[in-house]
Specification:
It is a single chain. By secondary structure, the chain is of the alpha/beta class. Helices cover 61% and strands 6% of the residues. Strands 2-1-3-5-4 form a five-stranded mixed beta sheet. Helix 19 links the parallel strand 1 and strand 2. The relative contact order is 0.10.
């Protein structure tokens, strides 16, 4: 894979994006979960998995933390790559260095993926600049800059794959290892696989027998990539539990607490496709028109030449990743559309560079795309302002959180405290307590003081964790009619009658530090 780097405005712009990411992650290093829209509790999940690799309890623990760990639905390559690249910062600066370096690794993955895609498909720097502006400033690009999730490394793997795929005239080859890695990172690209495995039969004019032989070889490399991303699968023949665990964590784990059976395509279009998080209604309308035009002209050209153009391939890839989400996902999480949006934008800009359109249409298309980006920038800026505006709130919440933790520590030498996900969480204490251990239930060495966060607050969770204290910010146990953002939040409210009837325990308010409320859980 070769990329030509020249100091042009598009690279300068990406450099500015990198500097902004460095600044944001420095200012919001801890407790970014207080801003529930831009960062959240999922960061702790990644940090915990990486910490288990860097700070293992034994050699066996180290081995299993790499190949399997406690999270398989994101594969394992993200975690062991983060561990490798954050090892030195962790040794120098401790947990702070670990958290910051993981975030910046993912920033570099996003930027690298976009640069590879831009250089692979777009010739002129002016159009690459439009591509980088339209993708790097998306609200969920900023989201992935600050919260380590699998989409950035998956984008990078897809970018490397499509670089080789295009250079080899969309034929089969060893580079299918990269699409296997991308699939192992997150299986949401399963709808993309028919495109990449069937495309060589159209665009590569080798004999059918040779094509079938190459197909078998590419499938083997795809499986190798999958094993690289999820190493425990190689032990499947001797330990079927690993394969079973992987399928249970992916295909059998598609439901979430935020699922809504009444959610339909109209909701997705209104709040997802045309929503502010993805650039606003201007973005949605123009991109829809562009996509439809590229799709129509691309299919028309395909019927004449029996050849898929670059822009048609990219738009199909984008649609393959967007449409299933809109049609079949019962939770409105617009970040699911992010990768598909990137490929859709890329396909539209490749179409603008196409020699098959007139100069007038090219000028009109470029102007429309410029308007699209202005709308996208405005919507992204207005959303990102919320995070900047909450800096003082985050500082206040951090101070109140520390007071709450110190208060509980002074009350009891040993305890378990459960908190909702919007209370600032102490990384140090939680990592030492909740480290992944496949062999025994690990207990903290310093007084058994346990702080645990939970996305769900319910009597059953408090009972299973043997909680002595409950810390809440969003939820108000005393009055279940307040502190509700939506009707769904009522399912997260505690029911004291249920606690007393089924568990024989009662939750009593102890004290509060700012908006953080502390409750004691006592036996009747």
């Amino acid at each position: 894979m070769t990329l030509k780097f020249k100091l042009t405005p598009d690279y300068i712009f990406m450099g500015i994006i990198l500097i902004l990411a460095i600044w944001m992650n420095s200012h919001y290093l801890y407790n970014s979960n207080i801003n529930y829209t831009l960062a959240g509790h999922d960061e702790y999940l990644t940090v915990r998995e990486v910490f288990s690799i860097l700070h293992p309890l034994s050699l066996k623990h180290f081995f299993l933390a790499i190949i399997s760990g406690d999270v398989l639905y994101y594969g394992r390559i993200m975690f062991y790559t983060d561990a490798l690249l954050s090892f030195i910062p962790y040794k120098i600066w401790g947990i702070s260095g670990l958290v910051y370096s993981i975030r910046m690794v993912h920033v570099l993955m996003v930027i690298s993926g976009l640069l590879i895609l831009g250089n692979t498909f777009i010739k002129e720097w002016k159009h690459r600049l439009l591509f980088y502006i339209g993708t790097a400033t998306l609200y969920y690009s900023v989201y992935f800059f600050m919260i380590p999730k699998p989409e950035p490394i998956q984008l990078l793997a897809l970018a490397i794959f499509f670089n080789y795929f295009k250079r080899n005239n969309y034929g089969f080859g060893k580079y299918f290892i990269w699409i296997g890695i991308a699939y192992g990172i997150k299986f949401n690209i399963i709808t993309l696989l028919p495109i990449v495995f069937l495309l060589p039969f159209f665009n590569n004019k080798n004999e059918l027998k040779a094509q079938l032989k190459q197909l078998i070889g590419s499938i083997i490399y795809f499986l190798i990539g999958l094993i690289i991303a999820v190493p425990c699968l190689i032990l499947g023949p001797i330990k079927p539990i690993f394969v079973k665990s992987y399928f249970n964590a992916t295909f059998a784990n598609t439901s979430q607490y935020d699922d809504d059976a009444t959610l339909g395509i109209i909701d997705w279009l209104g709040q997802g496709w045309f929503g502010a998080y993805n650039g606003g209604w201007i973005f949605g309308i123009i991109l829809s028109l562009f996509g439809a035009m590229v799709l129509f002209l691309g299919v028309k050209k395909l019927l004449k030449s029996n050849y898929f153009s670059n822009e048609l391939i990219l738009v199909l890839v984008g649609l393959a990743m967007i449409l299933p989400v809109i049609l079949f996902t019962n939770r409105l999480w617009p970040h699911y559309l992010w990768t598909g949006y990137i490929f859709l934008i890329l396909g539209c800009l490749v179409f603008i560079e196409s020699e098959n359109i007139s100069k007038a249409l090219k000028l009109l298309s470029t102007s429309a795309f410029f308007v699209l980006l202005i709308g996208s920038l405005y919507c992204s800026f207005s959303q990102d302002q919320k995070l900047v505006g909450q800096f003082s709130q985050i500082q206040s919440m951090t101070e109140n959180g520390k007071k709450a933790y110190d208060y509980i520590r002074q009350r009891k030498p040993a305890f378990t405290s459960v908190q909702d996900i919007t209370v600032p969480y102490p990384f140090e204490e939680m990592l030492l307590i909740n480290r992944f251990n496949p062999f025994t239930a690990y207990q903290a060495q310093e007084g058994n003081q346990r702080f645990m966060w939970s996305g769900f607050i319910s009597p059953a969770i408090l009972h299973s964790n043997k909680a002595d204290y409950l810390l809440t910010n969003k939820l108000n146990f005393e009055d279940t009619s307040s502190d509700l953002r939506t009707e769904k939040d009522s399912t997260l409210q505690l029911n004291n009658q249920l606690m007393r009837a089924e568990l024989g325990k009662t939750v009593i308010k102890d004290t509060a530090f700012g908006p953080i409320k502390i409750y004691r859980i006592i036996s009747n």
